[in-house]
Amino acid sequence: MPNLNRLAFAGFLTFLPSAAFAHHPTGGMAPQSAIDGFLSGLAHPVIGLDHLAFIVGVGLLAALTAHRFLTPLLFVGATVAGTLLHLMAFDLPAAEFVIALSVAAIGVLALSGRSYGMLVTGGLFAVAGLFHGYAYGEAVVGSESGAVIAYLVGFAAIQYAVAIAAGHVAVKLLGEGRSARENFGLRVTGGVVAGAGAIILGEQMLAIVGLAG
After folding, report:
1. Across all residues in the chain, what is the average pLDDT?
2. Residue span of the structural domain in which 104 resides
3. Per-residue pLDDT reduced to its tens digit, 125-167
4. Contact 186/180 with Cβ under 8 angstroms?
5. Per the domain annotation, does 26 fall within a domain?
6. 22-30 long-range contacts, Cβ below 8 Å, gap at least 24?
7. Domain assignment present for 145
8. How many domains, the chain?
């Protein structure tokens, strides 16, 4: 069983860096039905490396708190709020840069293996969630209300599921130490998230200076 767990974990690590940087799951077309909205919502958080990596980080940090099943809801709720802000034409400046920075930050925190308490963890989830949700909102600009609601339900559900699964895999199945700081699975996964964040952040910085698209 340990070898099987490690094989599954290796597969996860392989999948994470290969996730696309896409930000519009319907190929540029806003969903016009509840079914399309729901499917788009399920897809959006996992087809973009920046969003997926951060959600995995949410699961890792939440697993280090006393409320591993409730803490991710702070992030999920904030993403819903961020999408609504976008649809209300409220501007969040430098959203893509903040998202990239949030991925690097949450990876570093998870890599440390420390529990930072609800103030730091919850604050990071809430602030970053607004920006991630703001980016999600672009996919449903122009959609009918039914499609928007289904979209919100879809991405809320998939984000929560991925966060809980990531925390469970890293801590329960692959943990080798008695403390979080000794937990091999959690810290390696945090390192992968931090690495992905560094790549995304580097791309954003190159774009700012006009060296990348």
Report:
1. 85
2. 50-209
3. 999 999 999 999 999 999 999 999 999 999 999 999 999 999 8
4. yes
5. no
6. 22/47, 22/48, 23/48, 23/135, 23/138, 23/139, 24/138, 24/139, 25/139, 26/139, 30/139, 30/140, 30/141, 30/142, 30/143, 30/147
7. yes
8. 1
